[in-house]
């Protein structure tokens, strides 16, 4: 048992990230967000977008940044003037489709979304977009002082036959914020899935006493592994994901793997009271160490701000499909193997499917109510 204790300490120390500190970080670059929509508020995905800069009277224009294919009359020819590596314009290539969590506009937050980043924007700019073979342009507007002090500004780009109308988007939230509802959603998931598991195991399979308790504990522990990954790892592959979200996703994947290995060791090699002491200690330590390390990872990878983000990535539907398949298969295998096959594999798979379906539907119901 002493060897297990030493292994536990070493593995927990391995969870601590090695964070580098940057001194005297300069201010972040200006960031512009453009959300394209038609006159009815429906999202549009442009095939090409150009950010055009000009002097105060716009007598001279220059192609600052470009994305995709803008090759019809009305587009500016040539290469972008700003550094293609450090000053980028990127747009989501996701197409409208089946949505996971309906938003007020009933759309995926990344459809038709573009982000531009640079330190070298001139006094004024206008936007050019090619959509379904047609080219639309906006009136020139200034890069305001407020935009530089806040370093981020967002616009709704309303596409109409007369052109592009840029309307400031004061309540815009960039993709990638998942924290606010994490704890309530975790608690909801635990309650719903433990209730479904209790009904399935107790009423259908007639399990009682320690056998039922052991399996319910495994259900709760499996949720502690899969839930952070569903929330942070799979969404980190979405369009416009900042690097700190991707780093956090990989860290939680690593932490979940270590946590699972430790649980497997003590579930399979210990018995009775000794097992529960070790499992409780590991779980308590994980609940303390992993959040602290997550904050350290976020700080180490986000310090300084200002990122060129890629519009390429998984759509919401693909994220959901991959995360739910992972959750069902992982939780079924977790319960089956760590219970020492006390629950048949077919029952473990069916139970996992029912639990995840119930928690997902419960989440949708809460979103609709709120």
What does this 3D model show about the protein?
This protein is α+β, with helices and mostly antiparallel strands. The longest helix has 31 residues, at 272-302. The protein starts with a helix and ends with a helix. It folds into two domains: 34-168, no CATH class; 178-369, no CATH class. The protein is 47% helix and 17% strand.
Extract low-pLDDT stretches.
4-26, 96-107, 146-150
Query: Terminal Cα separation, in Å?
Result: 50 Å
Q: What's the pLDDT, averaged over the residues?
A: 80
Number of strands: 10
- Elements, N to C (H/E): HEEEEEEEEHEEHHHHHH
Observed structural traits:
single chain; 370 residues; alpha+beta; 8 helices
In short:
The protein is of the alpha+beta class. Helices cover 47% and strands 17% of the residues.
Question: What topology does this entry show?
Answer:
Blueprint: H1 2-14, E1 30-38, E2 48-54, E3 61-68, E4 89-91, E5 113-118, E6 124-131, E7 134-137, E8 141-142, H2 145-150, E9 152-160, E10 163-168, H3 182-204, H4 209-233, H5 243-269, H6 272-302, H7 316-338, H8 345-369
Helix pairs in contact: 3-4, 3-8, 4-5, 4-7, 5-6, 7-8
């Amino acid at each position: 048992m002493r060897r297990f204790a030493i292994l536990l300490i070493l593995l927990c120390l391995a969870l601590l990230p090695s964070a580098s500190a940057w001194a005297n970080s300069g201010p972040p670059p200006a960031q512009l967000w453009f959300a394209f929509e038609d006159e009815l508020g429906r999202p549009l995905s442009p095939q090409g977008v150009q950010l055009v800069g000009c002097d105060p009277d716009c007598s001279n224009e220059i192609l600052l940044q470009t994305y995709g294919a803008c090759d019809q009359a009305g587009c500016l020819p040539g290469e972008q003037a700003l550094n293609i590596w450090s000053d980028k314009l990127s747009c989501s290539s996701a197409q409208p489709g089946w949505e996971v969590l309906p938003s007020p506009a009933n759309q995926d937050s990344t459809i038709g979304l573009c982000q531009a980043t640079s330190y070298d924007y001139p006094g004024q700019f206008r936007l050019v977009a090619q959509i379904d073979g047609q080219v639309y342009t906006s009136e020139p507007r200034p890069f305001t002082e407020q935009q530089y002090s806040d370093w981020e500004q967002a616009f709704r780009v309303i596409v109409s036959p007369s052109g592009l109308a840029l309307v400031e988007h004061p309540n815009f939230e960039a993709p990638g914020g998942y924290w606010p509802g994490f704890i309530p959603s975790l608690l909801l998931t635990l309650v719903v899935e433990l209730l479904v598991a209790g009904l399935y195991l107790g009423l259908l399979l007639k399990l009682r006493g320690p056998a039922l308790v052991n399996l319910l504990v495994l259900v709760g522990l499996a949720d502690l592994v899969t839930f952070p990954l569903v929330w942070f790892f799979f969404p980190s592959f979405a369009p416009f994901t900042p690097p700190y979200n991707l780093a956090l996703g990989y860290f939680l994947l690593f932490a979940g793997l270590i946590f699972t290995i430790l649980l497997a060791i003590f579930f399979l090699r210990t018995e009775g009271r000794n097992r529960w002491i070790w499992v409780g200690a590991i779980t308590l330590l994980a609940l303390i160490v992993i959040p602290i390390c997550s904050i350290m990872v976020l700080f180490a990878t986000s310090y300084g701000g200002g990122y060129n983000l890629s519009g390429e990535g998984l759509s919401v539907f693909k994220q959901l499909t991959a995360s739910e398949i992972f959750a069902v298969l992982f939780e079924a295998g977790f319960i089956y193997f760590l219970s020492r096959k006390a629950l048949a594999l077919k029952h473990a798979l069916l139970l996992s499917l029912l639990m995840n379906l119930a928690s997902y539907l419960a989440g949708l119901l809460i979103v609709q109510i709120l």
